[in-house]
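User: Let's play a game. I give you a shape written as tokens, and you guess the letters that built it. Ready? Here's round one.
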């Protein structure tokens, strides 16, 4: 059996800074992972944080609600700006910007707004926007409003 599962504690558990995750797979896949993984395992503090996070269902539910609200905020903002997007169940949204995607990506970076240009995934007309707090979500929307006027 070649099934596998990999998960991180980054977004839903709020532990992105400690770089911890877990995986489950068949023995052959695990052996392969062990050949390429970093030489040191996750430290004791990170392990304790991850273990505590697994038992904090209230935090997970609050994170899910915040992420859903953030996605809705971005969807509504992009709809107002007539920017097509793909609905997501994750912590990011793929926005379709067409031929101006790379230019807009660089203009956002110049403003300190970090998004991902999706050309590397075979989607040169798209960018990926991570969902954050209401204020963080509003920043790219405001910038789109200003940048789109000067680009198109």
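Assistant: Ready! My guess for every position:
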């Amino acid at each position: 059996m070649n099934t596998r599962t990999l998960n991180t504690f980054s977004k839903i558990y709020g532990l992105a800074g400690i770089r911890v995750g877990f995986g489950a797979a068949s023995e052959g896949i695990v052996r392969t992972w062990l050949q390429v993984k970093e030489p040191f395992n996750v430290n004791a503090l990170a392990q304790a944080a991850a273990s505590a996070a697994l038992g904090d269902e209230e935090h997970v539910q609050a994170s899910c609600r915040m992420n859903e609200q953030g996605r809705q905020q971005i969807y509504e903002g992009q709809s107002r700006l007539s920017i097509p997007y793909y609905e997501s169940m994750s912590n990011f949204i793929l926005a379709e910007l067409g031929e101006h995607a790379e230019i807009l990506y660089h203009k956002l970076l110049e403003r300190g707004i970090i998004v991902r240009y999706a050309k590397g995934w075979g989607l040169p007309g798209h960018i990926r926007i991570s969902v954050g707090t209401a204020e963080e979500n509003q920043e790219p929307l405001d910038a789109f409003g200003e940048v789109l006027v000067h680009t198109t």
